[in-house]
């Protein structure tokens, strides 16, 4: 295709502002998909993504469009991951296109996630077309939202398109704007091949499928290619585009977006952001900005039923085939038995993988508290990464510890600002900026990732009644006074409950944790001490008193069915318990005990 007839774009939106619905409408109105094949949220392929309304893999669709000028255009839409965990993947997708539609719900306005992604689009030098969606709703306020886009983001919104992705209003105008307002890609056909690896995934029939954007040169079936980062070489077997089903084409030229297959065995062999070139007469220089993806949040995954360990291994290996950013290694816990220590790009990533194991593989899991990666400096100056608080070396050998910090951006209505500042302060935050956009405040904080990883977002939502939006990026490692806190139940240390805490907050955290556990652990026939300790020193303690009566004693005599129900309930509850010495701890305790209020 001629460069001047190509438009590559992405859609930037906060969750639920209508990105998927708009994509569906664009695909449908151009006849890319026949009405009878149309299903909702066409681009969100995986069930779990569909349910949660998030995109994890970059999806793409090629749309043919005859514009008002009578010309035939090829529009390539890349649907980018919509969550902070995948910020790097988003940045690569953004580099693969020249423009963005900025979709803002006209009943809601700009949110923090919109901001993060729109800044990525601005960084990638995109032309940005604002789209005010959901104008069919009575609460739509286009003038206010347009003004807000100008105030907060600083882009011109006078020509914002008013759309209802639901009813179809403004879809034609959106297509015309893509053609007339977004620039065509540039690139040279005769130059050495330079293609960006935008994303990759595993297909049971075709092996690894690689999504590419051609910058320069031409890629054809049978070409011998080289990945510049990994040095790996392959022969291109298939080459094609998504409409959205795969359609084989002869070649991909400059400006085009499509896929290749090349007998690549594992997704791990492909690195997002890598440059693909020809093995012979290839490009000398790689595309800028490549970064290897590193897991930032770790947790242990253990089967509730220990006989399912091999099933869990199988599930994890299968999932890892398709997800290079997810890491795992076997772990044994005194408390939980055999399991895996797994690394994720963020909390959402963790939740998605955990849900998939539970649902697709039907394995019930115990998830230990998520932990960030600490840098432990020994007295001899050597640095070690600590992925699991349980592995913390002896204090006497340690010089100091460093923890990852983030820059968090929060947008919140004025009324809740005080609560948000307090929350950030409580989590050891350092305020970097505070500004206003209309009646909303934008606060920027430097925060320790470990204070955020667990329940920060839940807390933020609850103190702001859901009105705040939040986004973050990693900024690096800094030292602080951090210690490992252990928990002992009935005098036995429960390794899965070990956490890293700031020394000044240890007592408070320890107390809160013991109180929580006291509520979460059912009473036994004997008294159970619950303690929090640093090193050998107990810093908090609670005692769970002994159970006096049989639960069934309440069901005086006759009512057999009620009695059976109670026993069944007990049995179901038991299944989710783990035995620690003589004490049974319910599965949910491992997560709940660590929530800080
Ligand atoms: P995404 O998270 O940005 O992909 O948002 P979705 O496309 O999944 O839309 C979120 C919700 O908003 C869904 O329930 C849609 O049906 C609804 N929605 C999307 N566009 C419109 C619109 O123009 N009008 C109305 N009334 N609802 C819409
Ligand atoms: Mg969506």
Automatic annotation (TrEMBL):
CDD domains: EF4_II, EF4_III, LepA, lepA_C
SMART domains: EFG_C (SM00838)
GO cellular-component term (any): plasma membrane
Binding of GTP, residues: 16-21, 133-136
Domain Tr-type G as annotated: residue spans: 4-186
UniProt record, GO biological process: positive regulation of translation
EC number: 3.6.5.n1
Any GO molecular function: ribosome binding
Subcellular location: Cell membrane
Membrane topology: Peripheral membrane protein
Keyword Iron-sulfur set for record: no
Chief place of localization: membrane
InterPro entries per the UniProt record, alphabetical: EF-4, EFG_III/V, EFG_V-like, EFTu-like_2, G_TR_CS, LepA_C_sf, LepA_CTD, LepA_IV
Pfam family, one: GTP_EFTU
Catalysed reactions, as listed in the record: GTP + H2O = GDP + phosphate + H(+)
Function: Required for accurate and efficient protein synthesis under certain stress conditions. May act as a fidelity factor of the translation reaction, by catalyzing a one-codon backward translocation of tRNAs on improperly translocated ribosomes. Back-translocation proceeds from a post-translocation (POST) complex to a pre-translocation (PRE) complex, thus giving elongation factor G a second chance to translocate the tRNAs correctly. Binds to ribosomes in a GTP-dependent manner.
Similarity comment: Belongs to the TRAFAC class translation factor GTPase superfamily. Classic translation factor GTPase family. LepA subfamily. Belongs to the GTP-binding elongation factor family. LepA subfamily.
UniProt-recorded name of the protein: Elongation factor 4
Originating species: Tritonibacter scottomollicae
The encoding gene: lepA
């Amino acid at each position: 295709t001629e460069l001047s007839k190509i438009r590559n774009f992405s859609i930037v939106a906060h969750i639920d502002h209508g990105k998927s619905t708009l994509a569906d409408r664009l695909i449908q109105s151009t006849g890319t998909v026949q009405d009878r094949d149309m299903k909702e949220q066409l681009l969100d392929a995986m069930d779990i993504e569909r349910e949660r309304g998030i995109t994890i893999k970059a999806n793409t669709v090629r749309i043919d469009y005859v514009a008002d000028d009578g010309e035939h255009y090829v529009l390539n839409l890349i649907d980018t991951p919509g969550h902070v965990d995948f910020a790097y993947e988003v940045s690569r997708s953004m580099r693969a296109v020249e423009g963005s539609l900025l979709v803002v719900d006209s009943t809601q306005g700009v949110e923090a996630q919109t901001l993060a992604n729109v800044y990525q689009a601005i960084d990638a030098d995109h032309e940005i077309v604002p789209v005010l969606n959901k104008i069919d709703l009575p609460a739509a306020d286009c003038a206010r939202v347009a003004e807000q886009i100008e105030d907060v983001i600083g882009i011109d919104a006078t020509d914002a398109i008013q759309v209802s992705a639901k009813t179809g209003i403004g879809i034609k105008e959106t297509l015309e704007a893509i053609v007339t307002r977004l620039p065509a890609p540039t690139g040279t056909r005769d130059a050495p091949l330079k293609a960006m690896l935008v994303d990759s995934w595993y297909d049971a029939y075709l092996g690894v499928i690689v999504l590419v954007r051609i910058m320069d040169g031409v890629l054809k079936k049978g070409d011998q290619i080289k990945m510049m980062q990994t040095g790996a070489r392959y022969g291109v077997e298939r080459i094609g585009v998504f409409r959205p089903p795969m359609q084989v084409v002869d070649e991909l030229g400059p400006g085009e977006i499509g896929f290749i297959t090349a007998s690549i065995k594992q997704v791990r062999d492909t690195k997002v952001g890598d440059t693909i070139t020809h093995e012979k007469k290839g490009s000398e220089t790689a595309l800028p900005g490549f970064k290897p993806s590193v897991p930032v949040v770790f947790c242990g995954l253990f089967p509730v039923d220990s006989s399912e360990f091999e099933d869990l291994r199988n599930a994890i290996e299968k999932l890892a085939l398709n997800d290079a950013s997810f890491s795992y290694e076997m772990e044994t816990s005194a408390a939980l038995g055999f399991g895996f220590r797994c690394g994720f790009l963020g909390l959402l990533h963790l939740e998605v993988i955990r849900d998939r194991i539970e649902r697709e593989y039907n394995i019930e899991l115990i998830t230990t508290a998520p932990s960030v990666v600490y840098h432990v400096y020994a007295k001899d100056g050597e640095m070690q990464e600590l992925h699991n608080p349980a592995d913390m070396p002896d204090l006497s050998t340690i010089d100091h510890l460093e923890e990852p910090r983030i820059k968090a951006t929060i947008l919140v209505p004025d009324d809740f600002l005080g609560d948000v500042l307090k929350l950030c302060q409580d989590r050891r935050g350092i305020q970097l900026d505070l500004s206003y956009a209309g009646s909303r405040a934008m606060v920027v904080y430097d925060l320790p990732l470990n204070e955020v990883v667990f329940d920060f977002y839940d807390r933020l939502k609850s103190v702001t009644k859901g009105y705040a939006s939040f986004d973050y990026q990693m900024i690096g490692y800094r030292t602080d006074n951090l210690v490992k806190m252990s928990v002992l139940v009935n005098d036995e240390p429960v390794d899965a409950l070990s956490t890293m805490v700031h020394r000044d907050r240890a007592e408070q955290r320890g107390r809160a944790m013991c109180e929580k556990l006291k509520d979460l652990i059912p009473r036994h026939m004997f008294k159970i001490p619950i303690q929090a300790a640093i090193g050998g020193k107990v810093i908090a303690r609670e005692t769970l008193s002994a159970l006096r009566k049989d639960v069934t004693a309440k069901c005086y005599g006759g009512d057999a069915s009620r009695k059976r129900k109670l026993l069944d309930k007990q049995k179901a509850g038991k299944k989710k318990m783990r035995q620690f010495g003589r004490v049974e701890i319910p599965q949910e305790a491992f997560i709940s005990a660590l929530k800080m209020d």
